[in-house]
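Justification of resources, computational component.

The compute hours requested in this renewal are based largely on the per-chain cost of generating structure records like the one below. Each record pairs the submitted sequence with a full structure-token output. That output is archived, and it is also reused by downstream analysis tasks.
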Amino acid sequence: SAVLWQWQCPATLRCVDPQLTGRYLAAATGLIPDDEGLVLSRLSAHLKVLAGECTRLLLPIYASDHWVLLNLDLSAGTVVSVRYRDSLTAESERCRAAAALVLSVFAPDLTLPQRCNASYQPPGSATCKLAMSSTASRYWACMRSVTSHRRSPS
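The structure output for this chain reads:
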């Protein structure tokens, strides 16, 4: 599926194609024409369907020449936990605003939390996509481990 972005994820984890979040942001900020709001409403509806199909949703977001990752933990399509990762040593305000806009699709009343990185990319490097992909891969590995452990006989 085009929605599962480069990983074969367990059913409880979805990695959203960054093109989907990019199109949503472009429509929401007026970068693409959407006079009647049809593009925005269709993309919002599609993202909400994805949220109802999993317990963790990873949303790679590209803004201002930088990648960030929004991680939503869900229960029956409702956001129960939000994590935001920005690998720059000085947080990107434009990326933060983009992530807050994407979060508003799922939880309009929630505020984007402070970023929760364990590490940051070296200044001047262009490793943000690698950092974001690495974090998503760790989630996938963890989910795989939990899923296979649950299937083990007691």
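Confidence is low (pLDDT under 50) at residues 1-7, 139-154. Residues 38 and 51 are 20 Å apart (CA to CA).
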